[in-house]
Amino acid sequence: MTGLPAGADEVRREILQLSLNDTTRGNRLHIGLFGRRNAGKSSLINALTGQSVATVSEVPGTTTDPVYKAMELHGIGPVVFIDTAGFDDEGTLGKLRVEKTERAARETDIALLLFSGLDMAEELAWLEVFRRQKTPVILLISRTDELPDGGRDLQAAVEQAAGEKPLLVSAGDRPGLDRVRQELIRALPEDFEQPSITGELCQAGDLVLLVMPQDIQAPKGRLILPQVQTLRELLDKGCQALCCTTDRLADTLARLKEPPQLIITDSQAFKAVYPLKPARTKLTSFSVLFAAFKGDIAYFLTGAEVLLHLTASAHILIAEACTHKPLQEDIGRVKLPRLLRKQLGADLSVDIVSGKDFPADLTGYDLVIHCGACMFNRKYVLSRVQQCQEQQVPMTNYGLAIAALLGILDKVSLPNG
Ligand SMILES: Nc1nc2c(ncn2[C@@H]2O[C@H](COP(=O)(O)OP(=O)(O)OP(=O)(O)O)[C@@H](O)[C@H]2O)c(=O)[nH]1
Ligand SMILES: [Mg+2]
């Protein structure tokens, strides 16, 4: 694939998905499988997907890094199955694998938890974790074809300990697999239907102007995911969507018989767009819309206000979901730190993490500033928000932070009114 920086694996995968007219991973229901080594997790994924997705072997610890398999599941729609390393893995490497399994748990919308024996302390501890993070869990007893009574004794013991009757399943048991699929449909979180991106900001018949600078950061020959998703939603809503680059904004507005209902801009163009905005037109940014779509906008707004009271002695963490090689004038790695230092002082301490790296201990930070997170699913972003809340660290996102730094936070319209 040309025009992309080397190492942009996630971006490349995303493009591949889009070019296949597929649903991006961030918008799929994430179904994770968890259990001990050799519990039969990988075999179950293969059986449920009907494909040889994950490596199976009798050697405990076969699965090391999480394996993601996107597919359409009848009755649910686009999902991604996550196979994980056994949570009882040991040693230095084992510990690293368990950390990845824990991370997979944070992006899991529905968990399949496999019980494989009478010693179930670890399974029960994981059940507790899922219940605490309000993740629906389906309890399973796996490899039941090998158990003398088809697993009924173990089923009774698990029911007694967990307060819920587990399903009996084995990789070759079609009716058992169908029961798992039915349970997945039943466990579908009520709020899983993705909230709207533009919310109440525009309705059918409204003209919406999108300001999309195609500068050095814009990937060659394509649009970035938030722009694509927003455009699609506007078309579905029956809005008229008009796009221009920042330098064409004044001319575009001058050609219109009446002002647009809404302007959605790239946050980096806020400064140029705001003075040109017609009085009656609402203004927002892709990143602000994604603050609500993927995160917790109320918490992010408080974080943006906290930002205005920080000084040069503050310690800020910037979290960028994309793992691309830093581009010239990259927003998270270059522009935002520069803007922050200009506003708060040159000595400001800024750490930057990318991809799924996110420190467990955030207490040293005065603020976390997250990207729009179009690459992540909502559950995972909310788990980061929860982590910040538990450690009493304020959090905001790029769009709200930039609006706050430019002094136009109160001029920006939010999708929930
Ligand atoms: N008889 C029978 N064997 C199974 C079943 N599921 C898995 N196995 C066998 O159990 C062994 C472990 O299966 P895996 O699917 O690799 O187990 P896993 O939980 O993914 O293991 P790790 O990746 O090591 O954590 C393999 O030899 C499988 O063939 C089942 O339902 N019935
Ligand atoms: Mg495995």
From TrEMBL:
GO terms for cellular component: cytoplasm. GO terms for molecular function: GTP binding. It holds the Pfam family HydF_dimer. The keyword GTP-binding applies. GO terms for biological process: tRNA methylation; tRNA wobble uridine modification. Keywords: GTP-binding, Nucleotide-binding. InterPro entries: FeFe-hyd_GTPase_HydF (IPR023873), GTP-bd (IPR006073), HydF_dimer (IPR041606), HydF_tetramer (IPR040644), P-loop_NTPase (IPR027417), Small_GTP-bd (IPR005225). Residues 199-295 form the Hydrogen maturase F dimerization domain. Residues 31-141 form the G domain. This is Iron-only hydrogenase maturation protein HydF. The lineage of its organism: Bacteria, Bacillati, Bacillota, Negativicutes, Selenomonadales.
